[in-house]
Amino acid sequence: MTRLAAAPEAVRAAAALLSDAERDRARRFAFDRDARRFILARACLRELLAVRLGVRAEAVEFEYGAYGKPALARRFADSDLSFNVSHCDDVAAYAFSYGHAVGIDVEAVREISDADDIAARHFSRCENETYRTLKPSERPLGFFNCWTRKEAFVKALGEGLSMPLDGFDVTLAPGEPARVLRIANTPGDSGWWLESLSPAVGYVLAIASQGYAAA
């Protein structure tokens, strides 16, 4: 995890690590704050990947799947390295895995006025039953436990929302270990590993990986 806040000279140094396409993307942001966060997050990703690949950060190349999930370019295929990134406010979180798909999501735990309605629309029946049993004070964390775990799982799949959010079950109760309980009509985790933690006060993070813990 990294904080996406830095002095102007550090942002300029980070931008120098980006590709021309990435710098163009940064310039298209409507707000300078969002451009800075993108630059710092992408530069940090490049540096983390560079260490694992044994190349310079500027030499890292990306390609994108049909649903926009970034991956390493084909020339790095022999590394068998997968990664995923999530941003929330000025926090960026990264996950890496060798030989297995990986997804990550981070959110600030907060009260949302329509959280119950969102849960009713997007959580599965089993998840909703658990969510409704939580005390009011536990519901914000329960909501974001569920949301981040589901987002991490879907991002690991890399297929957008072709897997409906209510098409699988995850645990969500505060204090309960993160697990995939069902995928489609098949009970059990089907080989998926799920982890949840708090990377900073007021935030919750989930990582999903198929078959093995993320690096």
Q: Largest sheet, described in full?
A: 3 strands, antiparallel
CATH topology of the largest domain: Ribosomal Protein L22, Chain A
Q: How many H/I helical runs?
A: 6
Going by helix content, strand content and strand pairing, the class is alpha+beta
**Distance between termini?**
13 Å
Please write the CATH class name of the largest domain: Alpha Beta
The total tally of domains equals 2
Strand line-up of the largest beta sheet: 1-5-4
User: In CATH terms, what is the architecture of the largest domain?
Assistant: Alpha-Beta Complex
How confident is the prediction overall: mean pLDDT?
93
Helix and strand run: EHHHEEEEEHHHEEEEE
- Any low-confidence stretches, pLDDT <50, length ≥5? none
- Provide the helix percentage: 25-40%
Q: Supply the CATH superfamily name of the largest domain.
A: 4'-phosphopantetheinyl transferase domain
Tell me the overall shape: globular
Per DSSP E runs of 2 or more residues, the count of β-strands stands at 11
Strand content: 25-35%
Explain how this protein is built:
The protein is of the alpha+beta class. It has two domains: about 1-100, Alpha-Beta Complex (Ribosomal Protein L22, Chain A), CATH 3.90.470; about 105-210, Ribosomal Protein L22, Chain A (Alpha-Beta Complex), CATH 3.90.470.20. The chain has helices spanning about 10-15, 20-25, 30-55, 115-120, 125-135, 140-155; strands at about 1-5, 60-65, 70, 80-90, 90-100, 100-110, 170, 180-185, 185, 190-195, 205-210. A three-stranded antiparallel β-sheet has the order 1-5-4, covered by helices on one side. Helix 2 (about 20-25) runs antiparallel to helix 3. The mean pLDDT is about 95.
